[in-house]
Design goal:
binds coproporphyrinogen III; two-stranded antiparallel sheet; 7-stranded parallel beta sheet; TIM Barrel; about 50% helix; Uroporphyrinogen_deCO2ase_HemE; decarboxylase; alpha/beta; 16 helices
């Protein structure tokens, strides 16, 4: 499987037969089959039942013809395993019962053993590894994004408490980030050992930081994480939203593939990163609601800009959104087919 995978070839900046495609949040509520499962099971329940999680992960591969699967889980699952209870509230997002408020709270967080605390995640990966015809992407949240939920206790607009801790007690902030870093390394390695062929670190909200703050308070931990994961040999994808100005710093993290959102043209992203990275992105996910002609035009523009050198993976600039009425499954299927056909043999 792996040698023939366009996704892995693109991650390694090798020539491909066609540009590989996958979508962040390719499993979710836009799919009628997923909604039917969610009527009976909560999101966390799906994650905890390997046979169910296996089906949900596979569904978009069958339905859309994408070139990679992403493990169905959530960035909050390991936060629970560290000892913070959470729930995911529909249309709100993650809520933490007792957010981090003191040094003692941070000291109490456990850098757990995934085999002990999250065996169901690893079991799901093992089931998928033996079944999928495309590579499986494992993932975890990145330290800033995880810390923001753990400190704010809920989705946040301004990250006031998070930034307050960062600026007011650097030692404690560093202790928290390093603890998260140690957890992330362990969890990612366990996913790789179970069969994940690549790892994506979701740093969705890190784009809220200035370049100076990113470099001072986040970059050292990111470097440690990617240094420790380097020997696994799998592609390491680092993604965030509104990170245009951070890309030159992202280039120093040790990630091998950089995910960019739709605000940065691919050529500009490559110029900022330097040309030894594979790049993933970056269609505005709201274009999935546009007339097909516009969606196709913007997609063609991305591909024309990206295809002049190897190392490009087509994706959205952020996840498939949940809306009512939802994105049509047919739109994503047609988009996948369009990217494959437009880039075939070029
Ligand atoms: O991409 C995939 O198909 C894999 C599954 C996946 C989920 N969450 C499932 C999920 C992945 C990769 C994630 C990551 C995740 N979770 C991130 C980083 C990526 C991003 O979108 O920025 C974040 C910030 C979270 C936290 C989270 N979980 C939020 C903000 C929400 C949405 C809350 C809402 O109802 O609007 C969730 C819930 C969630 N996680 C859903 C899915 C499919 C929504 C559907 C449901 O509740 O069943």
């Amino acid at each position: 499987m792996s040698l023939e995978s366009t996704f892995l070839q693109a991650c390694a900046k090798q020539p491909v037969n066609h540009i590989p495609v996958w979508y962040m949040r390719q499993a979710g509520r836009y799919q009628p089959e997923y909604r039917a499962i969610r009527e009976k099971h909560s999101l966390v329940e799906i994650c905890r039942i390997p046979e169910l999680c296996f089906e949900v992960t596979k569904l978009p591969v069958k339905q859309l013809g994408v070139d990679a699967a992403i493990l169905f889980s959530d960035i909050m699952i390991p936060i629970g395993a560290m000892g913070l209870d959470f729930e995911i509230k529909e249309s709100v997002g993650p809520i933490i019962a007792s957010p981090l408020r003191s040094k003692a709270d941070i000291d109490n967080l456990q850098v757990f053993h995934p085999e002990e605390k999250l065996p169901y995640v690893l079991k799901t990966i093992e089931l998928l590894k033996d079944d999928l015809s495309v590579p499986l992407i494992g993932f975890t949240g990145a330290p800033f994004t995880l810390a923001s939920y753990m400190i704010e206790g809920r989705p946040s607009r301004n990250y006031i408490r998070t930034k307050q801790l960062m600026w007011s007690d650097k030692a404690l902030w560093t202790a928290l980030l390093d603890k998260l870093g140690a957890m992330i390394v362990r969890y990612a390695k366990a996913q790789i050992a179970a069969g994940a062929a690549a790892i994506q670190l979701f740093d969705s909200w890190v784009g809220n930081l200035s370049v100076a703050d990113y470099r001072e308070y986040i970059l050292p931990t990111m470097k440690n994480i990617f240094t420790e994961l380097k020997d696994t040999g799998v592609p390491l994808i680092y993604f965030g939203v509104q990170t245009g100005e951070l890309l030159t710093s992202f280039a120093q993290t040790g990630a091998t593939v950089i995910g960019v959102d739709w605000r940065v043209p691919i050529q500009a992203a490559r110029a900022r990163l330097g040309y030894h990275f594979a790049v993933q992105g970056n269609l505005d996910p709201i274009l999935l609601f546009a007339p097909w002609e516009i969606l196709e035009q913007r997609t063609r523009e991305i591909l024309d800009a990206a295809m002049d050198r190897p190392g490009f993976i087509f994706n959205l600039g952020h996840g498939v959104t949940h809306n009512d009425p939802p994105v049509a499954v047919d739109t994503l299927r047609r988009l996948t087919k369009f990217v494959h056909e437009y880039t075939e043999g070029k």
